[in-house]
Write the C-alpha coordinates for this entry.
Amino acid sequence: MIWIMLLIIILSGFIVLAIYQPLLAMVLSPIISATLAGISAEQGEEGMAFLFSSIFLAVLLTVSLRTPKHDQPFWPQTLARWILGTILFFGLAISSFVVMPFLAVYGLLFWIAMAAVIIRYHVIAQDNLALEIFSLLGSCMRQNLPLATALESAAAGRHDKRSVILIRISQWLTFGFSLSDAIRRGYPRCPGNALGIIEMAERANQLPLAIKTIENDMFEKANDARRFKTFNPIYIIILLSVMLTIVMGVMVFIVPKFEAIFADLGAKLPPATQFLMKIAQAGYIWMLPLFLFINGIIIPLCIYTRFRPRRANSPRMLSKFGDMLKWNLPILKWFEKNNALAQVTSMLRLSLSAGCTVNNAIFNTTGLDVNIYFKKRLHRWLKQVERGDDVVLSAKKNDLGRPIAWAMDSHVHQENVPRALGSLEEFYRANNNYFVNIARQILWPILIIFMGAIVGFIVYAFFTPMVSLLEHLMADMMP
Protein backbone atom coordinates (compact mmCIF):
# COMPACT_ATOMS: atom_id res chain seq x y z
CA MET A 1 0.00 0.00 0.00
CA ILE A 2 2.88 2.34 0.81
CA TRP A 3 4.45 1.67 -2.58
CA ILE A 4 1.19 2.46 -4.36
CA MET A 5 0.74 5.74 -2.47
CA LEU A 6 4.35 6.70 -3.23
CA LEU A 7 3.78 5.90 -6.91
CA ILE A 8 0.63 8.04 -7.06
CA ILE A 9 2.30 11.00 -5.34
CA ILE A 10 5.45 10.92 -7.50
CA LEU A 11 3.51 10.35 -10.72
CA SER A 12 1.12 13.23 -9.95
CA GLY A 13 4.01 15.52 -9.09
CA PHE A 14 5.86 14.74 -12.30
CA ILE A 15 2.74 15.23 -14.44
CA VAL A 16 2.22 18.70 -12.90
CA LEU A 17 5.93 19.46 -13.37
CA ALA A 18 5.71 18.30 -17.01
CA ILE A 19 2.91 20.79 -17.63
CA TYR A 20 4.73 23.80 -16.21
CA GLN A 21 8.42 22.83 -16.53
CA PRO A 22 8.61 20.16 -19.26
CA LEU A 23 12.39 20.18 -19.70
CA LEU A 24 13.05 19.77 -15.96
CA ALA A 25 10.53 16.94 -15.79
CA MET A 26 12.17 15.10 -18.70
CA VAL A 27 15.59 15.41 -17.04
CA LEU A 28 14.56 14.35 -13.50
CA SER A 29 11.96 11.67 -14.28
CA PRO A 30 14.32 9.00 -15.74
CA ILE A 31 16.73 9.42 -12.79
CA ILE A 32 14.07 9.12 -10.08
CA SER A 33 12.18 6.45 -12.03
CA ALA A 34 15.26 4.26 -12.36
CA THR A 35 16.22 4.79 -8.70
CA LEU A 36 12.80 3.83 -7.34
CA ALA A 37 12.52 0.89 -9.74
CA GLY A 38 15.89 -0.44 -8.54
CA ILE A 39 14.95 -0.05 -4.85
CA SER A 40 11.58 -1.76 -5.28
CA ALA A 41 13.15 -4.60 -7.30
CA GLU A 42 15.70 -5.24 -4.53
CA GLN A 43 12.85 -5.59 -2.04
CA GLY A 44 11.03 -8.11 -4.23
CA GLU A 45 8.39 -5.74 -5.64
CA GLU A 46 8.85 -6.56 -9.33
CA GLY A 47 5.41 -5.23 -10.26
CA MET A 48 6.09 -1.89 -8.59
CA ALA A 49 9.51 -1.74 -10.27
CA PHE A 50 7.75 -1.95 -13.63
CA LEU A 51 5.27 0.77 -12.64
CA PHE A 52 8.04 3.07 -11.38
CA SER A 53 9.97 2.59 -14.61
CA SER A 54 6.91 3.79 -16.55
CA ILE A 55 6.97 7.23 -14.88
CA PHE A 56 9.34 8.51 -17.57
CA LEU A 57 6.95 7.35 -20.29
CA ALA A 58 4.07 9.12 -18.55
CA VAL A 59 6.11 12.34 -18.45
CA LEU A 60 6.97 12.05 -22.14
CA LEU A 61 3.32 11.46 -23.01
CA THR A 62 2.23 14.47 -20.95
CA VAL A 63 4.81 16.78 -22.53
CA SER A 64 4.01 15.57 -26.06
CA LEU A 65 0.27 16.19 -25.57
CA ARG A 66 0.81 19.54 -23.85
CA THR A 67 0.13 22.68 -25.89
CA PRO A 68 2.72 25.36 -25.05
CA LYS A 69 1.72 28.94 -24.57
CA HIS A 70 2.76 31.56 -27.09
CA ASP A 71 5.64 32.75 -24.91
CA GLN A 72 6.99 29.23 -24.28
CA PRO A 73 9.34 27.26 -26.52
CA PHE A 74 7.91 24.50 -28.68
CA TRP A 75 10.99 22.28 -28.87
CA PRO A 76 10.44 20.35 -25.55
CA GLN A 77 7.21 19.00 -27.00
CA THR A 78 8.98 18.04 -30.23
CA LEU A 79 11.81 16.38 -28.29
CA ALA A 80 9.36 14.42 -26.14
CA ARG A 81 7.49 13.19 -29.22
CA TRP A 82 10.72 12.06 -30.88
CA ILE A 83 11.90 10.18 -27.74
CA LEU A 84 8.49 8.60 -27.21
CA GLY A 85 8.24 7.62 -30.87
CA THR A 86 11.75 6.13 -30.84
CA ILE A 87 11.00 4.05 -27.73
CA LEU A 88 7.71 2.85 -29.20
CA PHE A 89 9.31 2.07 -32.56
CA PHE A 90 12.18 0.01 -31.17
CA GLY A 91 9.90 -1.64 -28.61
CA LEU A 92 7.54 -2.86 -31.31
CA ALA A 93 10.42 -3.89 -33.58
CA ILE A 94 12.17 -5.94 -30.88
CA SER A 95 8.86 -7.50 -29.80
CA SER A 96 8.08 -8.56 -33.37
CA PHE A 97 11.52 -10.18 -33.71
CA VAL A 98 11.05 -12.09 -30.45
CA VAL A 99 7.54 -13.29 -31.32
CA MET A 100 8.34 -14.16 -34.96
CA PRO A 101 12.09 -14.83 -35.22
CA PHE A 102 11.68 -16.56 -38.59
CA LEU A 103 10.54 -13.26 -40.07
CA ALA A 104 13.42 -11.28 -38.54
CA VAL A 105 14.98 -10.19 -41.83
CA TYR A 106 11.76 -9.16 -43.52
CA GLY A 107 10.50 -7.67 -40.25
CA LEU A 108 13.61 -5.50 -40.15
CA LEU A 109 12.91 -4.29 -43.67
CA PHE A 110 9.31 -3.56 -42.69
CA TRP A 111 10.36 -1.44 -39.71
CA ILE A 112 12.97 0.37 -41.77
CA ALA A 113 10.28 1.20 -44.33
CA MET A 114 7.96 2.30 -41.51
CA ALA A 115 10.64 4.62 -40.12
CA ALA A 116 11.19 6.08 -43.59
CA VAL A 117 7.44 6.74 -43.94
CA ILE A 118 7.32 8.51 -40.56
CA ILE A 119 10.32 10.68 -41.39
CA ARG A 120 8.82 11.47 -44.80
CA TYR A 121 5.58 12.53 -43.11
CA HIS A 122 7.45 14.95 -40.83
CA VAL A 123 9.39 16.38 -43.77
CA ILE A 124 6.17 17.06 -45.70
CA ALA A 125 4.54 18.52 -42.57
CA GLN A 126 7.49 20.87 -42.08
CA ASP A 127 7.35 22.02 -45.70
CA ASN A 128 3.59 22.54 -45.54
CA LEU A 129 3.97 24.59 -42.36
CA ALA A 130 6.48 26.88 -44.06
CA LEU A 131 4.19 27.21 -47.07
CA GLU A 132 1.22 28.17 -44.88
CA ILE A 133 3.19 30.82 -43.02
CA PHE A 134 4.67 32.46 -46.10
CA SER A 135 1.37 32.28 -47.97
CA LEU A 136 -0.25 34.14 -45.11
CA LEU A 137 2.56 36.72 -45.04
CA GLY A 138 2.23 37.26 -48.77
CA SER A 139 -1.55 37.56 -48.59
CA CYS A 140 -1.31 40.18 -45.83
CA MET A 141 1.25 42.23 -47.77
CA ARG A 142 -0.69 42.10 -51.02
CA GLN A 143 -3.77 43.46 -49.20
CA ASN A 144 -1.71 46.16 -47.43
CA LEU A 145 -2.84 44.94 -44.01
CA PRO A 146 -0.92 45.85 -40.83
CA LEU A 147 1.27 42.78 -40.62
CA ALA A 148 1.51 42.34 -36.84
CA THR A 149 -2.25 42.73 -36.33
CA ALA A 150 -3.10 40.48 -39.28
CA LEU A 151 -0.82 37.67 -38.05
CA GLU A 152 -2.27 37.90 -34.54
CA SER A 153 -5.82 37.74 -35.94
CA ALA A 154 -4.93 34.72 -38.12
CA ALA A 155 -3.66 32.87 -35.05
CA ALA A 156 -6.62 33.74 -32.82
CA GLY A 157 -8.60 30.80 -31.52
CA ARG A 158 -5.99 28.19 -32.44
CA HIS A 159 -3.26 26.54 -30.35
CA ASP A 160 -1.27 24.53 -32.89
CA LYS A 161 2.32 25.06 -33.99
CA ARG A 162 1.29 27.41 -36.82
CA SER A 163 -0.56 29.77 -34.47
CA VAL A 164 2.36 29.77 -32.00
CA ILE A 165 4.77 30.80 -34.76
CA LEU A 166 2.43 33.51 -36.06
CA ILE A 167 1.93 34.97 -32.59
CA ARG A 168 5.66 35.05 -31.95
CA ILE A 169 6.39 36.76 -35.27
CA SER A 170 3.62 39.25 -34.52
CA GLN A 171 5.06 40.01 -31.08
CA TRP A 172 8.57 40.63 -32.43
CA LEU A 173 7.13 42.89 -35.13
CA THR A 174 5.26 44.82 -32.43
CA PHE A 175 8.54 45.28 -30.56
CA GLY A 176 9.93 47.07 -33.63
CA PHE A 177 12.03 44.34 -35.20
CA SER A 178 12.27 43.94 -38.96
CA LEU A 179 10.44 41.06 -40.63
CA SER A 180 13.62 39.01 -41.10
CA ASP A 181 14.59 39.42 -37.43
CA ALA A 182 11.04 38.64 -36.33
CA ILE A 183 11.00 35.46 -38.41
CA ARG A 184 14.45 34.45 -37.16
CA ARG A 185 13.29 34.77 -33.54
CA GLY A 186 9.70 33.62 -33.90
CA TYR A 187 10.24 30.85 -36.47
CA PRO A 188 13.67 29.28 -35.76
CA ARG A 189 13.07 26.46 -38.24
CA CYS A 190 12.39 28.79 -41.14
CA PRO A 191 14.11 27.48 -44.31
CA GLY A 192 17.49 29.15 -44.74
CA ASN A 193 16.99 30.15 -48.38
CA ALA A 194 13.67 31.88 -47.58
CA LEU A 195 15.18 33.79 -44.66
CA GLY A 196 18.17 34.83 -46.77
CA ILE A 197 15.91 36.16 -49.55
CA ILE A 198 13.83 38.16 -47.04
CA GLU A 199 16.92 39.70 -45.45
CA MET A 200 18.25 40.84 -48.79
CA ALA A 201 14.82 41.98 -50.02
CA GLU A 202 14.47 44.27 -47.00
CA ARG A 203 17.62 46.10 -48.08
CA ALA A 204 16.21 46.48 -51.58
CA ASN A 205 12.71 47.41 -50.26
CA GLN A 206 11.12 44.62 -52.30
CA LEU A 207 9.56 42.42 -49.62
CA PRO A 208 6.21 41.67 -51.37
CA LEU A 209 7.92 40.50 -54.56
CA ALA A 210 10.46 38.49 -52.57
CA ILE A 211 7.77 36.70 -50.56
CA LYS A 212 5.88 36.01 -53.80
CA THR A 213 9.04 34.39 -55.17
CA ILE A 214 9.38 32.28 -51.99
CA GLU A 215 5.73 31.23 -52.28
CA ASN A 216 6.20 30.14 -55.90
CA ASP A 217 9.28 28.10 -54.98
CA MET A 218 7.46 26.39 -52.12
CA PHE A 219 4.41 25.68 -54.27
CA GLU A 220 6.64 24.14 -56.92
CA LYS A 221 8.42 22.03 -54.30
CA ALA A 222 5.10 20.85 -52.83
CA ASN A 223 3.73 19.96 -56.27
CA ASP A 224 6.93 18.11 -57.14
CA ALA A 225 6.61 16.05 -53.93
CA ARG A 226 3.07 15.02 -54.94
CA ARG A 227 3.95 14.04 -58.49
CA PHE A 228 4.36 10.39 -59.39
CA LYS A 229 8.02 9.52 -59.86
CA THR A 230 9.25 6.53 -61.78
CA PHE A 231 12.59 6.70 -59.96
CA ASN A 232 12.38 5.63 -56.32
CA PRO A 233 15.61 4.84 -54.47
CA ILE A 234 13.71 2.92 -51.76
CA TYR A 235 13.13 0.13 -54.29
CA ILE A 236 16.89 -0.19 -54.84
CA ILE A 237 17.57 -0.26 -51.09
CA ILE A 238 14.95 -2.95 -50.43
CA LEU A 239 16.09 -5.06 -53.37
CA LEU A 240 19.75 -4.88 -52.32
CA SER A 241 18.86 -5.72 -48.71
CA VAL A 242 16.81 -8.79 -49.63
CA MET A 243 19.37 -9.94 -52.18
CA LEU A 244 22.27 -9.49 -49.76
CA THR A 245 20.42 -11.41 -47.05
CA ILE A 246 19.71 -14.33 -49.41
CA VAL A 247 23.30 -14.40 -50.67
CA MET A 248 24.74 -14.46 -47.16
CA GLY A 249 22.35 -17.22 -46.09
CA VAL A 250 23.10 -19.40 -49.11
CA MET A 251 26.85 -18.85 -48.78
CA VAL A 252 26.75 -19.87 -45.10
CA PHE A 253 24.42 -22.89 -45.20
CA ILE A 254 24.32 -24.28 -48.75
CA VAL A 255 27.43 -23.50 -50.78
CA PRO A 256 29.91 -24.95 -48.22
CA LYS A 257 28.13 -28.33 -48.55
CA PHE A 258 28.49 -28.14 -52.33
CA GLU A 259 32.15 -27.31 -51.85
CA ALA A 260 32.64 -30.39 -49.63
CA ILE A 261 30.88 -32.62 -52.17
CA PHE A 262 33.00 -31.28 -55.02
CA ALA A 263 36.16 -31.77 -52.94
CA ASP A 264 35.25 -35.43 -52.30
CA LEU A 265 34.76 -35.92 -56.03
CA GLY A 266 38.04 -34.19 -56.85
CA ALA A 267 36.32 -31.33 -58.67
CA LYS A 268 36.06 -27.59 -58.19
CA LEU A 269 33.11 -25.28 -57.94
CA PRO A 270 32.27 -23.25 -61.08
CA PRO A 271 34.19 -19.96 -61.44
CA ALA A 272 31.05 -17.84 -60.95
CA THR A 273 30.27 -19.55 -57.64
CA GLN A 274 33.87 -19.21 -56.47
CA PHE A 275 33.84 -15.51 -57.33
CA LEU A 276 30.57 -14.99 -55.41
CA MET A 277 32.02 -16.86 -52.43
CA LYS A 278 35.05 -14.56 -52.39
CA ILE A 279 32.78 -11.53 -52.46
CA ALA A 280 30.68 -12.96 -49.62
CA GLN A 281 33.76 -13.78 -47.53
CA ALA A 282 35.08 -10.27 -48.04
CA GLY A 283 31.62 -8.97 -47.17
CA TYR A 284 31.78 -10.53 -43.70
CA ILE A 285 34.84 -8.38 -42.97
CA TRP A 286 33.55 -4.97 -44.08
CA MET A 287 29.77 -5.49 -43.92
CA LEU A 288 29.34 -4.94 -40.18
CA PRO A 289 31.53 -1.79 -39.97
CA LEU A 290 29.85 -0.41 -43.09
CA PHE A 291 26.40 -1.19 -41.68
CA LEU A 292 27.24 0.51 -38.37
CA PHE A 293 28.76 3.51 -40.15
CA ILE A 294 25.76 4.02 -42.43
CA ASN A 295 23.08 3.45 -39.79
CA GLY A 296 24.93 5.00 -36.88
CA ILE A 297 26.45 8.08 -38.53
CA ILE A 298 25.35 8.75 -42.11
CA ILE A 299 21.58 8.27 -41.77
CA PRO A 300 21.24 10.20 -38.45
CA LEU A 301 23.32 13.06 -39.88
CA CYS A 302 21.15 13.17 -43.02
CA ILE A 303 17.98 13.26 -40.92
CA TYR A 304 19.43 15.92 -38.62
CA THR A 305 20.55 18.19 -41.45
CA ARG A 306 17.21 17.76 -43.22
CA PHE A 307 15.24 19.04 -40.22
CA ARG A 308 17.78 21.67 -39.16
CA PRO A 309 17.51 24.83 -41.27
CA ARG A 310 20.60 26.30 -42.89
CA ARG A 311 21.81 29.75 -42.00
CA ALA A 312 23.10 31.80 -44.90
CA ASN A 313 25.16 34.27 -42.86
CA SER A 314 26.84 31.74 -40.58
CA PRO A 315 26.77 28.23 -42.07
CA ARG A 316 27.58 25.46 -39.62
CA MET A 317 30.26 22.83 -40.02
CA LEU A 318 27.90 20.22 -41.50
CA SER A 319 26.57 22.75 -44.00
CA LYS A 320 30.10 23.62 -45.07
CA PHE A 321 31.00 19.95 -45.42
CA GLY A 322 27.87 19.29 -47.48
CA ASP A 323 28.61 22.27 -49.72
CA MET A 324 32.15 20.99 -50.24
CA LEU A 325 30.90 17.54 -51.28
CA LYS A 326 28.24 18.88 -53.64
CA TRP A 327 30.64 21.38 -55.20
CA ASN A 328 33.28 18.74 -55.96
CA LEU A 329 30.99 16.03 -57.35
CA PRO A 330 30.48 16.44 -61.12
CA ILE A 331 26.69 16.20 -61.49
CA LEU A 332 25.77 17.77 -58.14
CA LYS A 333 28.04 20.73 -58.85
CA TRP A 334 26.02 21.62 -61.94
CA PHE A 335 22.76 21.57 -59.95
CA GLU A 336 24.30 23.60 -57.12
CA LYS A 337 25.54 26.24 -59.55
CA ASN A 338 22.25 26.35 -61.46
CA ASN A 339 20.20 26.77 -58.26
CA ALA A 340 22.56 29.50 -57.06
CA LEU A 341 22.31 31.34 -60.37
CA ALA A 342 18.50 31.22 -60.18
CA GLN A 343 18.57 32.87 -56.75
CA VAL A 344 21.21 35.41 -57.77
CA THR A 345 19.33 36.53 -60.89
CA SER A 346 16.13 36.85 -58.83
CA MET A 347 17.83 39.04 -56.22
CA LEU A 348 19.56 41.16 -58.87
CA ARG A 349 16.21 41.72 -60.57
CA LEU A 350 14.50 42.74 -57.32
CA SER A 351 17.35 45.05 -56.31
CA LEU A 352 17.68 46.80 -59.68
CA SER A 353 13.90 47.17 -59.96
CA ALA A 354 13.92 49.00 -56.63
CA GLY A 355 16.50 51.47 -57.92
CA CYS A 356 19.58 50.04 -56.16
CA THR A 357 22.98 50.62 -57.66
CA VAL A 358 24.83 47.72 -59.21
CA ASN A 359 27.17 47.56 -56.21
CA ASN A 360 24.27 47.29 -53.77
CA ALA A 361 22.48 44.78 -55.98
CA ILE A 362 25.56 42.51 -56.04
CA PHE A 363 26.02 43.03 -52.29
CA ASN A 364 22.46 41.82 -51.71
CA THR A 365 23.24 38.56 -53.50
CA THR A 366 26.06 37.78 -51.05
CA GLY A 367 23.51 37.20 -48.28
CA LEU A 368 21.61 34.49 -50.13
CA ASP A 369 21.66 30.87 -48.98
CA VAL A 370 23.78 29.45 -51.80
CA ASN A 371 26.79 27.17 -51.87
CA ILE A 372 29.68 28.74 -49.96
CA TYR A 373 32.06 28.16 -52.89
CA PHE A 374 29.73 29.98 -55.27
CA LYS A 375 29.32 32.73 -52.67
CA LYS A 376 33.10 33.30 -52.79
CA ARG A 377 32.70 34.10 -56.49
CA LEU A 378 30.02 36.66 -55.63
CA HIS A 379 32.29 38.32 -53.09
CA ARG A 380 35.11 38.51 -55.64
CA TRP A 381 32.71 39.97 -58.20
CA LEU A 382 31.59 42.59 -55.68
CA LYS A 383 35.16 43.60 -54.81
CA GLN A 384 36.13 43.97 -58.45
CA VAL A 385 33.04 46.06 -59.26
CA GLU A 386 33.61 48.29 -56.23
CA ARG A 387 37.16 49.03 -57.32
CA GLY A 388 35.91 50.13 -60.75
CA ASP A 389 36.14 47.02 -62.95
CA ASP A 390 33.57 46.48 -65.68
CA VAL A 391 30.51 44.58 -64.41
CA VAL A 392 30.24 42.33 -67.47
CA LEU A 393 33.94 41.47 -67.71
CA SER A 394 34.26 40.76 -63.98
CA ALA A 395 31.19 38.49 -64.10
CA LYS A 396 32.83 36.46 -66.86
CA LYS A 397 36.16 36.49 -65.04
CA ASN A 398 34.62 35.02 -61.88
CA ASP A 399 32.88 32.24 -63.82
CA LEU A 400 29.36 33.44 -63.07
CA GLY A 401 28.24 32.46 -66.53
CA ARG A 402 27.86 34.30 -69.80
CA PRO A 403 24.06 34.59 -69.39
CA ILE A 404 24.45 36.82 -66.30
CA ALA A 405 27.10 38.89 -68.08
CA TRP A 406 24.71 39.24 -71.03
CA ALA A 407 21.78 40.22 -68.77
CA MET A 408 23.85 42.78 -66.84
CA ASP A 409 25.13 44.48 -70.00
CA SER A 410 23.27 47.80 -69.99
CA HIS A 411 24.60 48.64 -73.48
CA VAL A 412 22.67 45.69 -74.90
CA HIS A 413 19.48 46.01 -72.86
CA GLN A 414 19.67 49.72 -72.02
CA GLU A 415 16.82 50.20 -69.50
CA ASN A 416 15.57 46.58 -69.61
CA VAL A 417 18.19 44.87 -67.43
CA PRO A 418 15.61 43.77 -64.77
CA ARG A 419 13.43 42.27 -67.51
CA ALA A 420 16.42 40.38 -68.94
CA LEU A 421 17.28 39.11 -65.46
CA GLY A 422 13.67 37.97 -64.99
CA SER A 423 13.82 35.96 -68.22
CA LEU A 424 17.15 34.51 -67.12
CA GLU A 425 15.69 33.54 -63.73
CA GLU A 426 12.87 31.63 -65.44
CA PHE A 427 15.42 29.95 -67.70
CA TYR A 428 17.53 28.71 -64.78
CA ARG A 429 14.51 27.37 -62.87
CA ALA A 430 13.10 25.62 -65.94
CA ASN A 431 16.57 24.32 -66.80
CA ASN A 432 16.95 22.81 -63.34
CA ASN A 433 13.58 21.02 -63.50
CA TYR A 434 14.29 19.81 -67.02
CA PHE A 435 17.64 18.24 -66.17
CA VAL A 436 16.28 16.74 -62.95
CA ASN A 437 13.65 14.90 -64.99
CA ILE A 438 16.22 13.91 -67.61
CA ALA A 439 18.54 12.54 -64.92
CA ARG A 440 15.69 10.52 -63.43
CA GLN A 441 14.66 9.11 -66.79
CA ILE A 442 18.25 8.13 -67.63
CA LEU A 443 19.41 6.82 -64.26
CA TRP A 444 16.37 4.66 -63.58
CA PRO A 445 16.70 2.37 -66.65
CA ILE A 446 20.46 2.13 -66.08
CA LEU A 447 19.92 1.10 -62.47
CA ILE A 448 17.25 -1.42 -63.47
CA ILE A 449 19.62 -3.01 -66.00
CA PHE A 450 22.46 -3.01 -63.47
CA MET A 451 20.31 -4.60 -60.75
CA GLY A 452 18.99 -7.14 -63.25
CA ALA A 453 22.55 -8.09 -64.18
CA ILE A 454 23.47 -8.56 -60.52
CA VAL A 455 20.41 -10.71 -59.83
CA GLY A 456 21.07 -12.76 -62.96
CA PHE A 457 24.69 -13.36 -61.96
CA ILE A 458 23.65 -14.46 -58.46
CA VAL A 459 21.06 -16.88 -59.83
CA TYR A 460 23.64 -18.25 -62.29
CA ALA A 461 26.20 -18.69 -59.48
CA PHE A 462 23.61 -20.51 -57.34
CA PHE A 463 22.48 -23.05 -59.93
CA THR A 464 25.65 -23.80 -61.90
CA PRO A 465 27.07 -26.04 -59.10
CA MET A 466 24.12 -28.44 -59.49
CA VAL A 467 24.61 -28.56 -63.25
CA SER A 468 28.35 -29.10 -62.88
CA LEU A 469 27.74 -31.81 -60.28
CA LEU A 470 25.37 -33.69 -62.60
CA GLU A 471 27.80 -33.40 -65.49
CA HIS A 472 30.66 -34.68 -63.33
CA LEU A 473 28.61 -37.66 -62.08
CA MET A 474 27.39 -38.50 -65.58
CA ALA A 475 30.98 -38.43 -66.86
CA ASP A 476 32.09 -40.88 -64.14
CA MET A 477 29.12 -43.23 -64.43
CA MET A 478 28.78 -43.48 -68.23
CA PRO A 479 31.59 -45.02 -70.32
Summary: The longest helix spans residues 417-477. The two ends are 89 Å apart (CA to CA). Residues 172 and 179 are 8 Å apart (CA to CA).
